[in-house]
Amino acid sequence: MSHRLLQDRRTVITGASRGIGRELALALARRRTRLLLVARSAEALAQTAADCTAAGAAVDTVIGDVTESATRDDIRDAVAQRWGEVDLLVNNAGVSAHGPFARSDEATFRRVMEVNLFAPAELTRLLLPLLPRGGDAAIVNVGSILGHRAAPFNSEYSASKAALRAWSESLRAELAGDGIDVLLASPGTTDTEFFEHLVAKRSEMPWKSAKGLPAAVVAEQIVRAIERGRREVFPNWRGRALVVANRLFPGAVDGWMKRYSAPQGATVSTD
């Protein structure tokens, strides 16, 4: 597909209250997309919805945790009642864990996998019957550059995003005959509040990070990739460079990764 018109497209976005999810909602609102926004924070979600309405979009919301089947059922029911079908599903909600794997625990790993892999997979399965075949419907999975090259002290997050990438590739091939695109977005470091919203913290985490792209810039590149019918997008050129370097010089990238961060303990953050 050379160009997908987004005006009036019925769109579901998870993790829409802040960060990349909020900026995706705003970018789509400026294109007059019809939106169903999903997030756990009622106050932050209401603000995003108000801003999207001001930008010219028709907006509905669902408050809840996408790892819970009741929330996913609410999303399915809202789509069925309001629109009957959904043209664009954006699986954006995510959590991150940081720290030495040896100091982590089962609950941390399971939470990261539940949010970053199982929730989007189950929501997609639930909404697939409502995606029109033979048209220009699309599923967008927001992954990470760490799904292509894992980083130390990010084992749970890297594993979840690598699995999301593999699932996206499989799903893309399965749905190609139905005319449903699957886009994997793999942002690098992004300036968001991602690490300011912790759901668990074991100790302080002194870590170093390169300055990232503004979330609005990342979101705009993802939306343009949706419009162009792309299969994958790397919003940050440094992320694409890392993937290429890892293929050509994996040992050198290993060494660079070891120096990238040195956290102590483990934390879990959510958008």
Keywords summarizing the entry:
single chain, 271 residues, alpha/beta, Rossmann fold, seven-stranded parallel beta sheet, three-stranded antiparallel beta sheet, 12 strands
Characterization of this structure:
The chain has 271 residues and is an alpha/beta fold. It has one domain: NAD(P)-binding Rossmann-like Domain (Rossmann fold), CATH 3.40.50. It contains 8 helices and 12 strands. The protein has a 7-stranded parallel sheet with strand order 3-2-1-4-6-7-11, with helices on both faces. Strand 1, helix 1 and strand 2 form a beta-alpha-beta unit. Helix 1 packs across helix 6, helix 3 runs parallel beside helix 4 and helix 7 crosses helix 8. The two termini are 31 Å apart. About 6% of the residues have low confidence.
Helix fraction, binned, reads: 40-55%
CATH fold type:
Rossmann fold
- The total strand number stands at 12
- The CATH architecture category equals 3-Layer(aba) Sandwich
CATH superfamily: NAD(P)-binding Rossmann-like Domain
Cα-to-Cα separation, first versus last residue? 31 Å
Instruction: Please work out how many helical segments DSSP would assign.
Output: 8
Instruction: List the strand order in the largest sheet.
Output: 3-2-1-4-6-7-11
Describe the global form: globular
Largest sheet: 7 strands, parallel
Task: Give Rg in angstroms.
Answer: 18 Å
Element string (H = helix, E = strand)? EHEHEHEEHEHEEEEHEHHE
- What is the strand content? 15-25%
Taking pLDDT < 50 over at least 5 consecutive residues as the criterion, the unreliable ranges are 194-208
Tell me, rounded to a whole number, the average pLDDT: 87
CATH class descriptor name: Alpha Beta
Number of individual domains: 1
